[in-house]
């Protein structure tokens, strides 16, 4: 806000954008708050965007700006007439930079932030672990063990299960019971379909869209095969692509791209699909308890979905850019997550819920090391145990709590 005339705070509905914007407006920034969820304000913004801004003093917070896309043209005009930092703080439950006619309007004038759901450390009001950053600089297991130091964590399996089932949306993550959480997710699903989707697109068959959301929840953490999804959902491919685009625009799903390098040949080119929140994924797939997940045989997929979300939240808070991918060869060897930053080695993270690591769990990391050679940092197996263990010269097993939990002690 001190450097840019416009700041855009974007993210899924109910992650806390309005709460954050209101707190900023009441703080040192001292802005006026208006939300387009208010019918009168929305009508005014739609009918006369320029007059809407002219009638309000800046600094100005405009909440849910995606409801009136032409308002961004008026913001651009106002900034060009009087360019100074901190004039507008905009929030949106859809990625307005991907909407038609919007992407270039605020180019060079706006700083964009994406607000993720809460991480495990945030829910616990603790600092995030530095383990991943330390591991990125470790070329082998001995150096990783030295960097992390002696580590022994209590058995936090039940807490991990709760975090996976609850996800990171604040009302669900802080719910006092499973029933309260279930009711919140049910309301969220209905509100999302009735408000966000209807605001963004003319979808005549909401039941089919809703069914697609459930089908994708069951496919979270899998390679995305649109042909199979089209057959199961009975949707035309053009419609399916449009619906998936809407789900991405509203931050409900994201695609993890495969990792390629000059040395890594014959790799799978299809992306992996993830729902953005493990709690919502669990609800949409009909699992409101860990026992149900076990009966469905989906504990591993949901834990991987949760790890994907935790990584996104952690990486978004770093000062340097670290990109996430996955590795999978045509012969089926896979590493769930591949992290690469400028000037860093490539870190592979394999997710295993079991409390013990077997040689079979290392196949993907070994294949990835064969492909990348010295470019690869130590291989990591994130697992459900309690000890930091050096498995071989190039691989360490690290408890989930050490990577993402509130009490991770790496120095």
Description:
The model has no long low-confidence stretch (mean pLDDT 88). Helix content is 42%, strand content 16%. The chain is α/β, with parallel strands linked by helices. It has a six-stranded mixed β-sheet with strand order 9-10-11-12-14-13, with helices on both faces. The chain has helices at 17-26, 39-47, 49-54, 71-81, 120-123, 131-136, 141-148, 157-166, 170-173, 178-200, 206-218, 226-233, 237-249, 278-284, 290-296, 299-316, 363-372, 400-404; strands spanning 6-10, 32-35, 60-63, 88-92, 110-114, 222-223, 253-256, 272-275, 323-328, 334-340, 347-352, 379-383, 389-392, 395-399. It folds into two domains: 6-114, P-loop containing nucleotide triphosphate hydrolases (Rossmann fold, 3-Layer(aba) Sandwich); 120-404, no CATH class. The chain is built from 18 helices and 14 strands. The chain is globular.
Question: Could you outline the blueprint of secondary structure elements for this entry?
Answer:
Layout: E1 6-10, H1 17-26, E2 32-35, H2 39-47, H3 49-54, E3 60-63, H4 71-81, E4 88-92, E5 110-114, H5 120-123, H6 131-136, H7 141-148, H8 157-166, H9 170-173, H10 178-200, H11 206-218, E6 222-223, H12 226-233, H13 237-249, E7 253-256, E8 272-275, H14 278-284, H15 290-296, H16 299-316, E9 323-328, E10 334-340, E11 347-352, H17 363-372, E12 379-383, E13 389-392, E14 395-399, H18 400-404
Helix pairs in contact: 8-14, 11-14, 14-16
């Amino acid at each position: 806000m001190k450097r840019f005339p416009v700041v855009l705070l974007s993210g899924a509905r109910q992650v806390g954008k309005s709460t954050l914007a209101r707190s900023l407006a009441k703080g040192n920034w001292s802005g006026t708050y208006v939300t387009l969820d208010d019918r009168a304000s929305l009508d005014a913004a739609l009918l006369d965007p320029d007059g809407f801004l002219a009638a309000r003093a800046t600094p100005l917070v405009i909440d849910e700006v995606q409801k009136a896309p032409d308002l961004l043209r008026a913001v651009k005009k106002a900034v060009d007439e009087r360019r100074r930092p901190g004039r507008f703080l905009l929030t949106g439950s859809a990625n307005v930079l991907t909407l038609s006619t919007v992407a270039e309007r605020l180019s060079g004038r706006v700083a964009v932030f994406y607000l993720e759901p809460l991480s495990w450390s945030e829910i616990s009001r603790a600092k995030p672990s530095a383990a991943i950053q330390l591991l990125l600089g470790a070329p082998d297991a001995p150096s990783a063990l030295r960097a992390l130091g002696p580590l022994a964590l209590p058995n936090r399996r039940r807490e991990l299960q709760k975090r996976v089932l609850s996800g990171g949306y604040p009302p669900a993550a802080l719910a006092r019971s499973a029933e309260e959480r279930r009711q919140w997710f049910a309301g969220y699903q209905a509100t999302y379909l009735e408000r966000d989707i209807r605001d963004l697109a003319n979808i005549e068959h909401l039941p089919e869209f809703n069914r697609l959301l459930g089908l994708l929840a069951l496919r979270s953490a899998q390679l995305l095969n649109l042909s199979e999804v089209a057959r199961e959902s009975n949707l035309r491919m053009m419609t399916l692509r449009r619906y998936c685009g809407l789900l991405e625009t509203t931050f409900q799903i994201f695609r993890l791209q495969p990792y390629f390098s000059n040395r890594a040949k014959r790799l799978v080119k299809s992306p992996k699909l993830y729902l953005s929140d493990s709690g919502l994924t669990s609800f949409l797939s009909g699992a409101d308890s860990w026992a149900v997940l076990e009966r469905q045989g989906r504990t591993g997929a949901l834990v991987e979905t949760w790890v994907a979300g935790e990584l996104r939240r952690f990486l978004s808070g770093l000062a340097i850019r670290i990109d996430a991918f996955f590795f999978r060869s045509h012969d089926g060897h896979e590493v769930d997550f591949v992290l690469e930053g400028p000037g860093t080695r490539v870190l592979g993270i394999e997710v295993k819920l079991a409390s013990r690591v077997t040689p079979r769990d290392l196949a993907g990391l070994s294949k990835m090391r064969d492909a990348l050679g010295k470019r690869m940092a130590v291989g990591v197996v994130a697992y459900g145990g309690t000890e930091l263990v050096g498995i071989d010269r190039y691989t360490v097993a690290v408890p989930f709590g050490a990577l993402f939990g509130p009490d991770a002690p790496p120095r």
